[in-house]
Specification:
homodimer; alpha/beta; 60s Ribosomal Protein L30, Chain: A; Alpha/beta knot; seven-stranded parallel beta sheet; elongated
Chain lengths: 260, 260
């Protein structure tokens, strides 16, 4: 059992949690909690390390770990070490180091979400979760977004990282990937009514951060702005909610075409 | 200038932030930041107390305060006192005590959001913001929800409390208010496809918490369950996003009827 905070494995976890560049250099990220462990088992993804507390193992949760590949032997750690390693105030009792996947973006995508200047990790995690549920082909992260492997993003994304390509890239690459697509910027109040847009075309939705919206690169690329008409007194919706409404209006129109 | 954390005004703010029952006994709540101050000015609601720091006053923000009614004279506090009073890690530099409004719920509501067991204050705040933007008639909080005046709820709600009635009530009262309405429970996977529902009727949407969903009172009241079809591998959407998608599908159908 690991009982020291200065154990190299624990220090490695802490650095992966804290250091964006280190995560990407190591091509690894840290997840926490039973829900994430189940997601890994569902997608048959083998963590490189699992740490657990004794009290976690003594709960029913142990069943989750038994569904893991046999080569995964969880490393026991003391409660105090788990509290030190964990990114949360109330540690779930289980954490894992997971290799980053490199899911390929389709060469001719039909439905993309492009994020610009999303600095709120909770909003980013929620948008990734929505994009996975809507089966978008990929999420493209333009420069200026919080890291997709930030622990707060991972708490909200509910396994989206295992389901669809999520890739940081330059605006040049965004432009290349969205060639021949209609590109709509989610905008507050000054765009085409979102229910009037033809979402059945190959389409990309660009969503900006709540504070500053999208930058000039997004605007130079876009077909136009799209807005959700709101009650007059109201300024805006939460960015993740607005993204969800736009994405599922696109899904609704596309389902009708598919006859589903 | 207030320079002591034990000043009675500061202690009163701290207690309002921390103590749900005290807030409701005093019929007062605490908001923070320029955005909320602007909302108060827009709705001509007079805070009972405004505290600011000198550095806040020296920024352009002072203009916001000048738009306040003349009887509001902000109380200066030291940076250290603001840090103590504030509920946030990075205080905005302005806080206000606001009297609770008692906006009346229409006798015959046409569009209601009913929340059951919503324990996540961020989600509750976001749902209130969405309900205000969609112009629902009211939000009914069934027993088991986090307090609508919790500081974390107020950070997400963006002034929803000034725009629509938000009321905690018993299930008996929910039942009385929703008489003759269609009542749909937002559900994961086992309900009627949400685009097939006739949202043009008088309708209430019940949304439960992410952890445990709705309780038996909600189920005994409901017309049925409604679901958003998701990509097969995905378990669910964030509760606030799902609520947003349902609410704005209702708005979409109702707009068509109105000819708007």
């Amino acid at each position: 059992m690991i009982t020291s905070n200065s154990n190299p494995k624990i220090k490695y976890i802490r650095r992966l949690l804290a250091d964006r560049r280190f995560r990407h250099r190591e091509r690894a990220f840290v997840v926490e909690g039973t829900r994430w462990l189940k997601e890994l088992a569902q997608f048959k993804i083998t963590p490189t390390l699992v740490i657990v507390t004794q009290s976690y193992m003594l709960q029913d949760h142990v069943l989750t770990l038994f569904n893991m590949p046999p080569e995964i032997e969880p490393t026991m750690v003391s409660e105090q070490v788990m509290a030190f390693a964990s990114d949360t105030v109330s540690p779930a009792g289980v954490m894992a180091i997971v290799p980053m996947l490199s899911l390929p973006i389709p060469a001719k995508p039909s439905f993309l979400l492009v994020l610009d200047n999303i600095s709120n990790p909770g909003n980013l995690g929620t948008m990734l979760r929505t994009a996975a549920a809507a089966k978008t082909d990929a999420v493209l992260l333009a420069p200026g977004c919080v890291d997709a492997y930030n622990p707060k993003v991972l708490r909200g994304s509910m396994g989206a990282h295992l389901r669809l390509p999520i890739e940081e890239m330059s605006w040049d690459k965004v432009e290349t990937l969205t060639t021949n697509m209609a590109i709509w910027i989610a905008s507050v109040g000054d765009g085409v009514d979102y229910v009037e847009v033809d979402w059945k075309k190959d389409v990309a939705i660009i969503v900006g951060g709540e504070a500053f919206g999208v930058g000039h690169q997004a605007r130079s690329l876009a077909t136009g702005n799209v807005s959700i008409p709101l009650h007059r007194d109201t300024e805006s919706l939460n960015a993740a909610v607005a993204a969800g409404i736009l994405i599922f209006e696109a899904v609704r129109q596309r389902r009708v075409v598919d006859g589903a």
